[in-house]
Amino acid sequence: MKDAKDLFSKQAGSYAAYRPTYPVALFDFLFSITKQYQRAWDCATGNGQVASVLATRFDEVQASDISEQQMAHATKKDNIFYSKLRAEHTNFADDSFDLVTVGTAIHWFDFDNFYKEVKRVGRQGAPIAVWSYGLFRSNNEIESIIDDFAFGTVGKYWQPERHYIEEQYKTIPFPFEEITAPPLSIKEIWTYERMIGYVGSWSSVQDYIAQNGTNPLPILEEKIKHAWAPGESRELNIPLFMRAGIIK
């Protein structure tokens, strides 16, 4: 089995503070394709962002992750049960779940073994949905600077699985009867400080620091300050892409 990758424990606090918030439309779609609302499994829950919304509709949400540090920052609700588990091997009973979700994580998984687990613990006819998002978009100048930083300055420090995100999950295996997801995006207004905090939470930035002993963020700050000054807010569009299907 492929080794599990935990790339976010060391920056769990900043990950929880700066990551984008998934739009209401995403959850509206999930609820529209779900037939029963007894139990949901939010796999790779991280800070519990997805689990906390699922908990508003489901009687019980099982939220698992390999990172205890991330779950320490997670939203607490009486019907959310957090557990440290690998995506590919859980202790859940067969035919347990009415919905399985994976937000911004499936590209790290051992696909074959995870899908076997999904088919074991998911109820027949229940949906599975997996999604992620790309680099934020703004005006052309800001986009150019961000892209240069992402693919130039820290480009070689991304993990190999990053290509699945660049390909918008179109190339991940997905052995389910597919449901077409609607167009989705994240629209937010960010301060300069949040943007810098978010970029600082990238796994590539953390690997750059680990390998070089210096932080690359000043490189970005120097290049972007004339286009996005400290204290300024910008409206951003973050493209979001999803694969959804039915467990059989």
Structure description:
Helix content is 34%, strand content 21%. The protein has ten helices and eight strands. The chain has helices spanning 12-18, 24-32, 49-54, 68-72, 111-121, 140-153, 162-166, 192-200, 203-212, 217-224; strands spanning 39-43, 60-65, 80-84, 99-103, 127-133, 177-179, 184-191, 233-246. Strands 1, 2, 3, 4, 5, 6, 7 and 8 form an eight-stranded mixed β-sheet that branches. β1 (39-43), α3 (49-54) and β2 form a beta-alpha-beta unit. α1 (12-18) runs antiparallel to α8 and α6 packs antiparallel against α10 (217-224). The radius of gyration is 18 Å and the shape is globular. The model has no long low-confidence stretch (mean pLDDT 93).
Which terms would index this structure?
8 strands; Rossmann fold; globular; 10 helices; 248 residues; alpha/beta
Please specify the SSE layout and strand pairing.
Layout: H1 12-18, H2 24-32, E1 39-43, H3 49-54, E2 60-65, H4 68-72, E3 80-84, E4 99-103, H5 111-121, E5 127-133, H6 140-153, H7 162-166, E6 177-179, E7 184-191, H8 192-200, H9 203-212, H10 217-224, E8 233-246
Parallel strand pairs: 1-2, 1-4, 2-3, 4-5
Antiparallel strand pairs: 5-8, 6-8, 7-8
